[in-house]
Automatic annotation (TrEMBL):
E.C. number(s) listed in UniProt: 1.14.19.55
Phylogenetic classification of the source organism: Bacteria, Pseudomonadati, Planctomycetota, Planctomycetia, Pirellulales
Enzyme class: oxidoreductase
GO molecular function annotations of the record: flavin adenine dinucleotide binding; N,N-dimethylaniline monooxygenase activity; NADP binding
Primary gene name: hapE
Ranges in coiled-coil conformation: none
Organism: Bythopirellula goksoeyrii
Protein family membership: Belongs to the FMO family.
Stated name of the protein: 4-hydroxybenzoate brominase (decarboxylating)
Amino acid sequence: MTSLHADRYCILGAGTSGLAVAKNFLQRSIPFDCLEREDSIGGNWCYGKPASSVYASTHTISSKQLTEYTDFPMPEEYPEFPDHKQVYAYLQEYARHFGLSKHIQFNTTVERIEPTATNWHVTLASGETRTYRGVVIANGHNWDPRFPDFPGAFSGTSLHSSEYKTPDVLTGNRVLVVGCGNSGCDLAVEAAIHAASAFHSIRRGYPILPKFFKGKPIDQCGETLLRWRIPLPLRRLAAKLVVRWVLGPPELVGLPRPDHKLFETHPVINSRLHDQIAHGNLREKPNVAELAGHTVRFVDGTSEQIDVILYATGFKLSFPFVDRKELNWRDGRPNLYLNIFHPERNDLFCAGLIQPDSGQWGLVDYQAQLIANYLVSQEKNSPAASRLNKRKRTSVNSWQGRGTYLDSPRHRVEVEHFGYRQELRKLIGELA
């Protein structure tokens, strides 16, 4: 069955990114359908749903002021780092406030999107194929687990961090957490509290920042320095001093010294890891060399008997519903201007395809404002839209806010939030 929706755009997903796009399209009177495979909004923050990676004790890593949408503050009574229940309530209120739910089609799974010369065919799991004017991919990118390829085989229980929900799987077991990102450090602390014995495997040393400095969230301290236009070397020095004052040198508790500079990797923010190591509740280990039954051997020659391995090793960039060539795939990622715009097509966009060094939803709100302004300007044949079309064709890999990060899968969509936000706001103004 084929149905025509050629007067409107298709937004894939009603998580934090899809909601921002829907809100901005609604405000600019851009016709759209928002398709969501679950029976509720929230995406990753809808705890317990198949699409959700959050676990029972999850809190935001970024502070609420740098996480919230641009025009919808989180409640004043919320803590600086809200938990997943508070986040979900906030998203529900956001959708209610802007009247979004009536524009979302729930329990609607997209199997395939394919371009034609003038529009897009969107095929649903029901077998229906719809024709849309354009597509905004906003389904998120933290859903396809990445596992390391260690030699040997493990006889115990293996879980990816996205599968972990409650600490009962840790209780009474010897647990190894693999990975030193924010999830890895949080789950290492969780294992230290609940497991019989807890170990934390780290392939390389990472700078770890405390969540607070003198009672203020650390990301807001960094935001102040960025607003003051403090040069990067001085910001690095300030951050190093804060780490030494609050946490101390990493090697004093057995953590490896970082082999790279601050802000060359995605920031790890954790105030409890050092404490659990210092109290003997968590033992740091190097990278895994081999799995042999319940024995895990490490590259330093040591080994441990392990019952549960919890892999906090990130996610692969996956879009199984569209051919990679349609996303201009290069070097392991969609090669898009500002991680939003296809260089050639003017009817395909991505929203939320970023990993910022701070909160995300405000940035995605600006992305959505920019997409909406672009579509309105394009409809009017605006010179500003023509300039952006030229820019996205010729400058796809050159824009402010990309930052200088280590070349690794973890950083393929990493952005430096302050410069990125400035660029988005500048273009929004040009297209207004």
